[in-house]
Amino acid sequence: MIKRIKALCVLVIVVLVALSSNFNVSAATLVGKDLYTMKNVSIEINGKKASIKSSILNKKGHLLLPMRELYEALGAQVSWDPKKKTASSIRNGKRVDLTINSKTAKVDGVNVSMEVAPLLYKNRTYFPLRFASENFDGIVVWNEGKQKVEITLDQSNGSNPPPTPNVPEGEKYTLYINNQKIMMDDPVIIKEGRTYIPAKYFYNYVEDSSGLWVSDRVFEMLLAGLSFQFTDGSNNILVNQEPVSIDEKPFIKSGEMYVPAPFLVKALGGNLRNLVGRKEIYITFNDYMFYSEFLEKQEGSTPKPQYIPNAQLEGSRNLLVSDNPEKINAYMLYGTTATLSMQEVQSTTATNEHRVFGWHLNELGTKAKIAITIQNISDTNSIKITNSKGLAKTSDNSWITYNVGLPIADSLLNGKLKNSESTGIVINPGETKVIEAYDLAPEFLVGFLQDIDISSVNGGNSKYIIRTVLAQNDEDLTKVHSDPISTDRYAHPRGAWPQSTLKTEIPAYTVGTPEVGYNLSNGQTDHLLTAENSLSTINGSVGNPGHFGMTYKVSIPIVNPTGSPAKVKIVLAGRGGLYSGAVKMNGKVHLIPTLKPSQEYVELPEYTVSGSSDTINLEIMHAGGANLPVAVYVESVE
């Protein structure tokens, strides 16, 4: 039930000082994993000490406040949904929904990521102060010396608009749009809690987009097939020539049309995260995450499948897997740099094909950078990167298979890996060069897949080392030549193997007979990437029974005794845990949503067998983070 309180004072919040700072352990008590109660923190609202009776918490350097007590002090409407475990607040028509243990909040219906999830402590909802500072309307200052939170409110009760606080214009922001890193030349501006960005950063960095000035005050932008027409100072815009009234007002500054990022994210579907303290903005548009459509999830059980009879490796592209240790923390490192995986190559072949697949979570508590490097250890022959393309995704939430694993699988099966600037570089004897590098914020996971072709320039033998390396303090990544750090006890794969494609043919299915099913990546009959046959074993190798970073080709022979047209269908289901991935059937790629084992499945489009025999060809790539095995079923359609 919504509790109505006194009229709301407008709260306008902008981070003036980073709110995640070190704190004195002697002034805190450990009450849970990485969770402390703070003894001497006070809160002031407009210079007066607020009465907050509940504890104030600190989790991983982030202050968490009791939501209801703070909001009631501000005069808000607060409600609690016990089934969804969601706390909601409404202030001046602005709604914020926070769900316990979820790093995704909703602000006026738009998904907004949080660095620390809300939590329950002694039956009270706590939320991070930094989140409030980035999404509410007012000014908050963290006074570390006095251990005090100072909140300044506008007391006009909405009769006069509060002053518009802007991010200091001398500070540069880093913008990530669909995982593209962009160093902004223009300031980000926050008005009434809404983030505004120059339109050029959308139409210049989002595929198949454009923008043009219609007049001195009107700017039109084409994005994801939609036309948006913004007018300076007006909240009335045109979407595909239809008038729409929004809460935000675009405006012109320094010759650029500033457009509201939350509106665009909500209109197109996606996620927005503005880390004011770190001067970073992350924007993801769902329409640009995937090339393929999702198959419809079906509910129901599937029969127990049998193992596929056998499988074999094919192709000439090597596979280097960098996934162990998956979680990287300071206790694993002997300094501020490390090698995570490596493969030494000595070859007489003119061109060598490689694939590097990586999957790592940053638990160092500080920013880090991970890179793929190649060191030429030949004394005489230079090598050249004749082809380099790949994809990397990062995420700090729990649905990494959707944000990271699926886009990589989708891009690979569609042949849409992005060309890399490392194509064409020459590495002379004794040199080391970076092929691709990835910035990784604390508590972020990165998944990457890079295909690299390496040729000998002089026609002689090639000798080189491929590494995945890490640096915490902007060290020169080309200087990291150490052996890999030791593997941990968890069963995440690490090693190098001679092929990155697997193929199998299941026994022929006869139309009209009962359904049959076979388990792929079952750890038994198709486990060909073992620790023992890894090409790199320094400081440990762990097998890859889940075939991460690989494509799995499945041939399904069909026998049709009558010769008359008959229909069959293919069903896919997870058998070991939550599963998702991508599958190509006869040239078309489909995405497999997250499936509960033995409870959910997907059906591929029905296939018509027109003669007495036929073959259905599948190519499957498991999403990083998925659980294996996955079962493939064949059945007749009446």
Describe the structure.
This is Copper amine oxidase-like N-terminal domain-containing protein. It comes from Heyndrickxia oleronia. The chain is mainly β. Among the domains are: 10-154, Copper amine oxidase-like, N-terminal domain (Copper Amine Oxidase, Chain A, domain 1, 2-Layer Sandwich), CATH 3.30.457.10; 174-288, Copper amine oxidase-like, N-terminal domain (Copper Amine Oxidase, Chain A, domain 1); 316-496, no CATH class. It is built from 5 helices and 56 strands. The strands form 10 sheets. Strands 30, 33, 46, 47, 49, 51, 52 and 55 form an 8-stranded mixed beta sheet that branches. Strands 34, 35, 37, 39, 40, 41, 43 and 45 form an 8-stranded mixed beta sheet that branches. Strands 31, 32, 48, 50, 53, 54 and 56 form a 7-stranded mixed beta sheet that branches. A hairpin with a 2-residue loop joins strand 24 (236-239) and strand 25. It is globular. The two termini are 53 Å apart. The model is unreliable at 1-26 and 156-170 (pLDDT under 50).
Features:
Copper Amine Oxidase, Chain A, domain 1, disordered N terminus, eight-stranded mixed β-sheet, 638 residues, mainly beta, globular, 5 helices
